[in-house]
From TrEMBL:
Gene3D superfamilies: Neurolysin, domain 3
Organism: Massilia aurea
Peptidase M3A/M3B catalytic domain ranges (all copies): 1-172
Keywords for this protein: Hydrolase, Metal-binding, Metalloprotease, Protease, Zinc
PANTHER family referenced in this protein's UniProt entry, alphabetically: DIPEPTIDYL CARBOXYPEPTIDASE
Protein name: Peptidase M3A/M3B catalytic domain-containing protein
Pfam family, one: Peptidase_M3
Record family assignment: Belongs to the peptidase M3 family.
Domain of life: Bacteria
Cofactor: Zn(2+)
Length: 174
């Protein structure tokens, strides 16, 4: 979350011989490269996550005999049937689709990134990387572990449900 914040970057992004800080132009290029093709990357991810969930939501007597047709319909229903951007992973990549024990958690990576981006906004709104902010984050999130529902823990920290806008900003999709 914090690796490219100026105060953190200054502590490690230095020339290996001279110790000079990373030039702003290079950092700008890195940030632009990070956002390159983000629409494609996000769409292919979402398509795979949708397929993952669709398989998981089937009852034991609902297993389709035609995997390709099932995929096409699931993607169409979600508005993700766009041939130039196929799913990152096809149905057969997820073991639960083939009778394994995978628990349909592929969406959780993006969900976690959403929480991360929104939590980063909290730090910005509250003065940045200050000890008192770290203490609040530790007290309300990090120290809780699995002692309470994760959504309740996040609401207690943030004062509301997570929003998508910081993630869209981070990915350059706003």
């Amino acid at each position: 979350m914090w690796m490219a914040w100026p105060e953190v970057l200054a502590s490690y992004a230095k020339h290996y011989q001279t110790g000079a800080p990373m030039p702003k132009e290079l950092l700008d290029k890195l940030r632009a490269a990070q956002r390159f093709n983000e629409g494609y990357r996000t769409t292919e991810y979402l398509a795979a996550a949708v397929l993952d969930q669709k398989w998981h939501q089937l009852g034991s007597k609902q297993m389709p005999s035609d995997v390709i047709a099932f995929e096409k319909q699931a993607l169409k229903d979600a508005g993700l049937d766009f041939a130039p951007v196929p799913p990152r992973y096809r149905s057969t990549y997820f073991s639960h689709a083939m009778g394994g024990g995978y628990s349909a958690g592929y969406y959780s990576y993006l969900w976690a990134e959403r929480l991360d981006a929104d939590a980063g906004e909290w730090f910005k709104e509250n003065g940045g990387l200050l000890r008192k902010n770290g203490d609040v984050f530790r007290q309300k999130v990090l120290s809780k572990g699995g002692t309470m529902d994760a959504v309740d823990m996040y609401r207690d920290f943030r004062g509301r449900d997570p929003v998508i806008e910081p993630l869209l900003e981070r990915r350059g999709l706003n």
